[in-house]
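If your schedule permits, I should be very grateful for your opinion on a structural question. I have a record of one protein: its chain in single-letter code and its fold written as discrete structure tokens. Kindly check, if you would, that the fold set down in the tokens agrees with what the sequence suggests. I remain grateful for any guidance, and I place the record below:

***
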Amino acid sequence: MWLSTLTASILTDQYDTKNIPTGNLNGTQTYKTDQTQYVWQNNFKLSETQQFSLAYERLNQKISGQFSDGDYVTPSYVGYQNNEVFTNAFVGVYQGEWGPHAVQLSARNDANSQFGNFATGSIGYAYQFTSQWRANVGFNTGFRAPNFNELYWPLTADFVGNPNLQPEKSKNIEVGLQYTHLSGQLGVTAYQTEISNLILNQPNQPGSYIYQPFNIGQATLKGITLNGNQYITKHTQIVGSFDWLSPINDDTNELLPLRAQRVLRMAAEHTWGEALFGLEWYLSSARREVFSKNNMGGYGLLNASLAYKVSKNATVQVRWNNMLGKEYNLVENYNTPGSNVFVNLALRY
């Protein structure tokens, strides 16, 4: 009745810029972030329909940077207010079912060494009308502290950090309806999210083409998501979703930049013995640019994947993204990867 899980992860991200003029700095810039995370989660099975979970999470983040012109090295050329931040978080989640009723309650407290203490939580309720129809409603709050890149990124030709950023705070409410039949499922979810202090990249001064993140007073995101899956045969499944989003900057009553209002995802999966083949089609509408009210064009991507179970404990996974080599931009003036392939080996014991 008690399952205890301990996980640890280490992530290092290093960014090097060479021979890019940045004011008086014309040499090589190095900007490095180290992150370690530890999570201890305990799930308690109170009964067949009741479960309670407690978790502790520790997140350490450290930033460093230097500039070199070949002869002269500046160990730290960014005005860090804090070059090391840690967060201690405690989480509690309860899930329970009574006949057609289901409830989920959660509470979380994050103690951030730079920004202070933040308490968030959620409540969700679902009702199973029949064996096929289920409705749900939920409400939750959240926060997001700005990362080191947003705070301290050194001045480059297109971007600079903002050490005065404040954490985002959000409130979200959503309702959903789901229909399940023997060979598939259909669902619809409507939601509204209100975000205060939303971190948004904007020109740092009128007429400038340098991005800098700023907090805006209030933003509202309203949306509807349709999703479904259908088995065509015993081994072949089609999965799809459509998202419609209205992202509004309440301070200006304009669309938020870099957010597509319509996104369609379609996928087909087929199992053949120990192999799972997948084909995905991703279609996105246009998004507003940051520096102007023009739109970056929509785009479509075709991806493929293969997972093969070599043994009971080992699986080889291959993924081919952007098979057709589509050229598109998610941020103006920044290229995106072309066709690329990833190979992964997963071992489980």
